[in-house]
Design a protein that fits this description.
Length: 577
C-alpha cells in the first residue's frame, strides 16, 4: 500500500502566477480567519508565466480611451467567440486592478514626463493602452505579489505538484486535491472546501513554445479527468517572434516582445525583404494570428534565413529609443549573439497561449461546486485570439475575483467532504505506472510530441493533418504507457515528472486536435486550409470538449451576444467590422 499524508485547508489554490497569488491575497482580505494554502509545482514568486510577462498590461486608464473601446478591441480580436460577460468584467476590473497593483502592492510602472502612466502600442488595438515596466513587467508584478503573500503568512507548499482533483464520495462536489511532494516523491491528499485551479494552461507541447517549463497543462488534464468541460481548445495562439538560438538551448522559442513590432520593427524574409504587406495592410502591426500565419507561409515557401527562421530588425529606428524602451529585449538578444539595436534577429512563430480552457463564468465558478478557476486555465475571455497585454490582465483580474468570491461561497455552501478514495487510489496507481515498466527514453517521446503537434496540429491545419495528428497522439500515448522510468527513487526524480508532464500534455493535445477537427471554419488562431473562410458570425459557437471513459467527446454551445452583436459596436462613433 502506498503511503499518503493528509492535511486540511479551507481554500486550496493551485499555482502561484498572477491568478493564484491574487486569489490568495483577495481571499485573505475578505476573511483573514480562513486557512488558505497556495500549492505550487515550482517556487512561489519564481515560476509560471506571469513572471515572464515582457510587454505589459492592457487597461483603459487614459482620458481618451474607454472600457467600451477596450471591450470592442477584445471582442473583435476574439472574432466574436468571447464570452461577453467575462470580457466585460475583464476590461472593467483591469482598471481597478492596475491601481491596486500600484497603490496597494507597490508596483512601479513606467511614467510619462507629466506623471501619468506610460502606455504603449500593442498589435490589434485601436488605442495605445499597454502599461509596462520597461520590457520586464512580469518580474515587477510577481515580485510585489509574492512579497505580500509572504507577509500575510498564507500557507504555501512549494515544489508540490497537483496530480488529481478528487471529488466527494457521491461525486457532487470537490473534496480536495492529490499532490506529490516533488522533494520526497511522497503523496499528500489536501482536503479543501474550495479549490482554485490556476496552473496557467500553456501550449508547451509544440516544437517552438514560450511557456515556462513548469507548465504542462496539468490543470486542464486534471479538469478533464474530473469531468469538467473545456471550451475552444483549438484556439492556440502562436506569437510571431520566438528566438531561434540553436537546437540545444531552451531560449529557442522564447519570445521577444510584441512592442517591438508596435514600435515600428520590420519583419524580413531570408533575403532581408519585408513581406507583411503581402498579407495584411497593417503590416507588422496586424494581430498575432495573421502575422504568425504569414510567417509560416513565407517559411513554407523556403524564403528563410540560414537556420530556417525569418528576421526582425529595429535597425531603421532611433537606437536610443530601442535601448531605452526595450532594454530587456536588447540584453536577451545579445545573450544569444544577436544585435537587436542595429542588426537582424532570427525569429520563428512560437506557441504562446491557450485561449481555450476550463469553462467558467464571470465569477470564476465551474460546473463542480467548490472548484473555481482563473487565469490561463480558464477559457472564454479571449475568444479566438488574445490581444497582447490581455493575458496578465486576465489572470490578475480573475484571480482577484475568485479570491473575492470564494469566502462568500464558503460561508453559504462550503463544507469539508469525504473524498472518493477510489479516485485517489487510481490516481496514485496512474502516477506510479512508469516505475513498473522497464526504463525508456522519455525525452525522445517529448521530441516526437513537439514535432507531431507542430507539423499536424499547428499554425495551419487540414482534416488530413489533424487525423494524422490524432493517430500519432494515440500511438504516443501507447508508447508512454509502456515506457518506464529507470531510477525508482521518487525524490526529485525529474524523469518521472517529465513522464507525468507528457501524460498531461498528450491528453490536452488530444483535446486540441479533436476541437480543431470539429471547427470547420477559420477564425482567429484556428486556421483550416480546407475551410479558409470564417462562417457566419451570428451563429458563432464555442467548441466543448469532455473526457468520457477515456474518450474525448465534442459538443458546441452558441455564443450568447449579451452586450453587442456582430456588426454592432458599443462605441457610438464607430461601426464594428
Ligand atoms: C514569455 C511570455 C511573455 C508574456 N508576455 C505577456 C505580456 O506582455 N502581456 C500579457 O498580457 N501576457 C503575457 N504573457 C501571458 C501571461 O504571462 C499569462 O497569460 C499569465 O501570466 C498567466 O497567468 P496564470 O496565473 O494563469 O499562470 P502562470 O503565471 O503561468 O502560473 C502558473 C502556476 O501554476 C503552477 N503549476 C503548474 N502546474 C501545476 C501543478 N500540477 N500543480 C501545482 N502548480 C502547478 C506553476 O508552477 C505556476 O506557479 C506572456 C507569457 C509568456 C510565456
Amino acid at each position: 500500500m502506498v503511503e499518503i499524508a493528509r492535511s486540511k485547508t479551507d481554500i486550496l489554490i493551485l499555482g502561484s502566477g498572477g491568478a493564484g497569488l491574487f486569489a490568495a491575497l483577495h481571499a485573505h482580505k475578505a476573511d483573514p480567519s480562513l486557512s488558505i494554502t497556495v500549492a505550487v509545482k515550482g517556487l512561489l514568486g519564481k515560476c509560471g508565466c506571469t513572471r515572464m510577462v515582457q510587454g505589459g498590461y492592457n487597461v483603459a486608464i487614459a482620458k481618451e480611451d474607454s472600457v467600451e473601446r477596450h471591450f470592442m478591441d477584445t471582442i473583435e480580436g476574439g472574432k466574436w467567440l468571447n464570452n461577453q460577460e467575462i470580457a466585460w468584467k475583464l476590461v472593467n476590473i483591469a482598471v481597478e486592478r492596475i491601481h491596486e497593483l500600484e497603490n496597494d502592492l507597490g508596483c512601479f510602472f513606467d511614467r510619462n514626463p507629466d506623471g501619468t502612466i506610460h502606455q504603449k502600442a500593442f498589435a490589434g488595438q485601436t488605442f495605445d493602452r499597454t502599461v509596462h515596466k520597461g520590457s520586464l513587467t512580469g518580474i515587477e508584478i510577481i515580485s510585489r505579489l509574492a512579497e505580500q503573500v509572504w507577509k500575510r503568512g498564507i500557507d504555501r507548499l512549494e515544489e508540490h505538484r497537483a496530480v488529481a482533483l478528487v471529488p466527494s464520495r457521491d461525486g457532487s462536489r470537490i473534496a480536495g486535491v492529490l499532490m506529490t511532494d516533488m522533494r520526497t516523491g511522497g503523496f499528500r491528499f489536501i482536503q479543501a472546501k474550495a479549490v482554485m485551479i490556476g496552473t496557467g494552461g500553456g501550449p508547451s507541447m509544440y516544437k517552438f513554445h514560450t511557456p515556462s517549463g513548469d507548465k504542462t497543462c496539468d490543470g486542464l488534464a486534471m479538469a478533464l479527468r474530473l469531468g469538467l468541460p473545456l471550451i475552444d481548445m483549438e484556439m492556440v495562439q502562436f506569437h510571431p517572434t520566438g528566438l531561434v538560438a540553436g537546437d540545444d538551448t531552451r531560449i529557442t522559442g522564447t519570445i521577444i516582445e510584441e512592442g517591438l513590432r508596435g514600435a515600428g520593427g520590420y519583419l524580413l524574409d531570408g533575403s532581408e525583404q519585408r513581406f507583411m504587406h503581402e498579407f495584411d495592410e497593417r503590416g507588422e502591426r496586424a494581430t498575432r494570428d495573421i502575422v504568425s500565419r504569414a510567417m509560416y507561409e513565407v517559411m513554407r515557401q523556403g524564403r528563410t534565413g540560414p537556420n530556417g527562421g525569418l528576421f526582425i530588425t529595429m535597425g531603421h529606428l532611433d537606437s536610443r529609443m530601442v535601448v531605452q524602451q526595450f532594454k530587456g529585449m536588447v540584453d536577451r538578444c545579445r545573450d544569444v549573439g544577436f544585435d537587436l539595436v542595429k542588426g537582424l534577429v532570427e525569429v520563428v512563430p512560437t506557441a504562446h497561449y491557450m485561449m481555450g480552457g476550463i469553462r467558467f463564468d464571470e465569477n470564476c465558478f465551474t460546473e463542480m461546486p467548490g472548484v473555481f478557476v482563473a487565469g490561463e486555465d480558464a477559457g472564454g475571455a479571449h475568444g479566438a485570439n488574445r490581444l497582447g497585454g490581455n493575458g496578465v490582465a486576465n489572470s490578475t483580474v480573475f484571480g482577484g475575483v475568485a479570491g473575492d468570491v470564494m469566502p462568500g461561497w464558503l460561508r453559504r455552501e462550503g463544507a469539508f467532504a469525504e473524498p472518493d478514495e477510489t479516485v485517489i487510489d487510481e490516481a496514485m496507481a496512474r502516477c506510479l505506472r512508469p516505475f513498473a515498466n522497464a526504463g525508456g527514453n522519455v525525452s525522445e517521446l517529448r521530441l516526437k510530441l513537439y514535432n507531431l503537434m507542430w507539423d499536424e496540429v499547428g499554425i495551419m491545419r487540414t482534416a488530413d493533418s489533424l487525423r494524422r495528428g490524432l493517430a500519432g497522439l494515440a500511438e504516443l500515448e501507447r508508447e508512454l504507457q509502456a515506457t518506464g522510468v529507470a531510477d525508482d527513487g521518487r525524490a526529485f526524480n525529474l524523469t518521472w515528472h517529465d513522464w507525468l508532464n507528457l501524460e498531461s500534455q498528450i491528453l490536452v493535445s488530444r483535446a486540441i486536435a479533436e476541437a480543431a477537427v470539429a471547427r470547420e471554419d477559420s477564425r482567429g488562431a484556428h486556421f483550416r486550409e480546407d475551410f479558409p473562410e470564417t462562417r457566419d458570425l451570428d451563429t458563432s459557437a464555442n467548441t466543448v470538449v469532455r473526457l468520457r471513459d477515456g474518450a474525448i467527446s465534442i459538443g458546441s454551445i452558441p455564443v450568447a451576444f449579451t452586450r453587442v452583436r456582430p456588426g454592432q459596436s458599443l462605441l457610438a462613433d464607430d461601426a464594428a467590422e
